[in-house]
Amino acid sequence: MEPKQIDEAENRILLEGFASTLAAMRVEGDSAEYRKPVNMLPRHGVFFRWPEQPAEDWIHPDDMELAAGMLPGGRIFQLQQCEDKQDRQAGYSVISYGDLAIRVLPAMWLPVDDAGYKVGDRVEVLAKNGAQQPFIGTLAEITYNPVTRRIEYRIEFRSMVLKKKYFEEDFRPCCRLEEPLSKRARAILNKASVSI
User: Fold this and answer.
1) How far apart (Å, rounded) are the C-alpha atoms in residues 1 and 106?
2) Any idea what DSSP says for residue 84?
3) 182 lies in a domain?
4) Of the residues 145, 151, 186, 187, which has the maximum number of CB atoms within 10 A of its CB?
5) For the chain, first and last CA: distance in Å?
6) Judgement on whether residues 128 and 190 belong to the same structural domain of the protein
7) Do 128 and 180 lie in a common domain?
8) CB-hemisphere CA count at 13 Å for 62?
9) Domain of 95, in residue numbers
10) Does residue 181 sit within a domain?
11) Full-prediction pTM beyond 0.85?
12) Cβ–Cβ contacts within 10 Å for residue 154, how many?
């Protein structure tokens, strides 16, 4: 069967139909739903050293004092989208550690896998067949050790931060009897039970 030859009038009709389809798609793409900002997935990382540029070039001026006490070091920060529209338009993101938040511009940091725990979470330290004393405490520090390439946790017990560093397998999430486990804590427990 021979291909049909299209004359110029038919070609113009086809092109106009194609152009109107593209215009309709463009209008759909410009709708309010498609203009919503994309939420950034939380990422985690550490600042082991200051980037080459001066701190004033990548840390928000209002957060300089807080950053000086927190950076650099092994603390694992969560990177999130800045909630303030003006700061977000200026290019700032937020790195948070527990309740502390610092606004930063993109800078050098080492990404780290997230175990799901956050500073302030209540945990139950496991006995591990009598190898350690079981107790319930609160996560006080979460740091990354570049030598062992593991996340280390320090736990607060009876208003004191213990010197011993714990690993993820040494404890599990817990809550008070009158409180149900949070969705995040259940996800951590489910992940741990699958790997056993």
Assistant:
1) 61
2) S
3) yes
4) 151
5) 65
6) yes
7) yes
8) 6
9) 43-111
10) yes
11) no
12) 17
Which pair of tokens denotes residue 92? 């700032």
User: Does any domain span residue 19?
Assistant: no
**SS3 at position 119:** coil
- Copy the structure tokens of residue 37: 């900002």
97 with 153, same domain?
no
pLDDT at residue number 53: 74
Domain count, the chain: 2
**DSSP secondary-structure letter at 59?**
B
DSSP assignment of 142-171 equals: EEEETTTTEEEEEEEETTEE-SS-B-GGGE
Which two three-digit tokens encode residue 192?
Answer: 């741990």
Predicted confidence (pLDDT) per residue in 36-83, tens digit: 555 555 588 888 777 777 778 888 999 999 988 888 888 988 888 888
Please check whether residue 31 lies inside any domain of the structure.
no
| Whole-number Å distance between alpha carbons of 44 and 46 | 7
Please say if the pLDDT value at position 10 is more than 60.
yes
